[in-house]
Amino acid sequence: MLSKSEIKFLKSLSVKKYRNRHRQYLIEGYRLVRECLNADYPVEKLWLSTEFQASPHGTEIIGELSRRNLAWETACAESLSKVTDTLHSQGIAALLPMSLYTSEPVAGGNLLILDSISDPGNLGTLLRTAEWFGLETVVLSPNSVDPFSPKVVRSAMGAHFYLSIYEKRLAEFLSELRGRNFQLIGGVMQGVPLETLCAGSDADWALVLGNEAHGLSPVLEGLLTTKVTVPRKGHVESLNLAAAGAILLNHLTEKTGK
Fold first, then answer.
1. Global pTM?
2. CATH T-level assignment (fold) for domain 4-98
3. What is the largest CA-CA distance in the chain?
4. 2, 83 contact by CB (below 8 A)
């Protein structure tokens, strides 16, 4: 059962400063926990309600935990509803170590770089999309929304378990990447047509996307090697950032084969 002190601690993890202090975060729901187990991501604690244990998903999860020799605890549904972020708890939650890095990302490989992203749904979807297209590293500016906030984690649907997520000062980092001969490709409103981009190139690349309302800062734009846009064929003023990112990542991975 969850004690009062455990409930207080787990509730505190909904706040960024406590996640950073303890280097832990909470996930909830069958699909996220199932993906966490599939990825062999470390689990520090896991709780199941009696109702969830009796369900088909509960039987599946308990069998998987038994096969992996992982411990779990019973918690009443009311206690779990106090610590989870969704309106109706599914009766399953897990405490995980938080892996946000400030060191240098590994050399080589393509990157997604995100500047001043403010919407949790956009960030989560971009993380999910990056993982879908086979990227392993995402780099965020320090003023972006917290990638381990509950809304981002839910939107990413398990991408956190496969990605290395870094926080860097982007002007310095892009300068370093230029020195390593990366193609720095920025999504902007006025750029070269998407169809002309990167065909046949062997160089590592980084896709750089900016804030939903303001785009990339002039400093970062000045460090790009290529500016690209998704051509508009309709009438609306702009494309959602996460949708634009998906289109650009699809094109880049298809054209470069990387």
1. 0.93
2. 60s Ribosomal Protein L30; Chain: A; (3.30.1330)
3. 59
4. yes
